[in-house]
Design goal:
Blueprint: E1 2-8, H1 16-27, E2 34-38, H2 40-49, H3 54-62, H4 66-69, E3 71-72, E4 78-81, H5 83-92, E5 105-111, E6 116-120, H6 125-132, E7 137-139, E8 142-144, E9 147-151, E10 167-173, H7 187-198, H8 203-209, E11 212-214, H9 230-242, H10 250-253
Parallel strand pairs: 1-2, 1-10, 2-5, 4-7, 10-11
Antiparallel strand pairs: 3-4, 5-6, 5-9, 8-9
Length: 255
């Protein structure tokens, strides 16, 4: 049904590297006909699918910081709420439901109530993206349709599954490499490290189905929840594409 599909992994603030890679691909004439994203990849995917350019999205998101997009609360279901991110999506994207987007989008979410992974391509856009990016304990989960949802990366951090059999070619971008060793100095760092380890399990499946697998090198030095070095992460993503031989991309531009 589709020519080229993009699969965008989770990875917190490292999602800025997605934008750099997508910018470089666009300059080569390669654009997504369908997108599947989880967590940070769902956020980037929503904006790209709405028609915004990578540069435009980059400037929009980097202008904030963690507390700009979240709100600290007394821990009941999570330390933080993502109210700011929801408001930004609703303000900047003129499509209420995911099925209204110009480019089809699947968002991966973990249904905690039913203990299963779900890939949603219908429903309220901002709510689905919020659910997909809600790292357990750190962010409050989201209630939809009588169930509780959290970060889809729990079960599938590189959500290639929805695009299998739907695309002629699949490009996977993984911005969440598992670095080791690391120094852990805070509760947030311990939570994000634990989560990162759990989401690294299905990488082989993503590689198997990818016609082009991108894993930008150098991201491990960037914290998952800091946008302070957004420009550098964007450049790392851009360079991960720019350094490849032109012949690599012929399969995506020729029918």
């Amino acid at each position: 049904m589709y020519n080229v599909g993009f699969v965008l992994s989770g990875g917190g603030a490292r999602g800025f590297a997605h934008l750099g890679a997508i910018q470089a691909l666009a300059e080569l004439g390669i654009h997504p006909d369908i997108i599947s994203g989880v967590s940070a990849g769902a956020i980037v995917g929503a904006f790209i699918a709405s028609g915004k350019s990578p540069q435009e999205i980059h400037e929009l998101i980097k202008s904030g910081n963690l507390l700009h997009y979240t709100r600290i609360q007394i821990p009941k279901t999570g330390i933080l709420r993502m109210d700011g991110m929801v408001k930004t999506i609703e303000r900047e994207i003129p499509f209420k439901n995911i099925e209204d987007l110009p480019v089809p989008l699947f968002v991966g979410t973990a249904n905690l109530t039913e203990a299963r992974m779900e890939y949603r391509n219908t429903g309220p856009l901002s709510t689905l993206v919020q659910a997909s990016a809600s790292i357990p304990v750190l962010f409050s989960p989201v209630e939809m349709d009588g169930c509780i949802y959290a970060d889809g990366g729990l079960l599938d951090n590189i959500p290639v599954h929805p695009l299998i059999g739907k695309c002629r070619k699949i490009i996977v971008c993984n911005v969440n490499p598992l670095e080791k060793p690391v120094t852990l100095k805070s509760l947030v760092q311990i939570i994000t490290r634990t989560f990162q380890m759990s989401v690294h399990a299905r990488i082989d499946e993503a590689r198997e189905h990818a016609d082009l697998y991108l894993e930008p090198h150098g991201l491990k030095e960037f914290e998952l929840l800091s946008v302070a070095r957004a420009d550098q992460m964007f450049e790392i993503g851009y360079d991960s594409v720019a350094k490849l031989e032109n012949s690599v991309f012929e399969q995506f531009t020729n029918e």
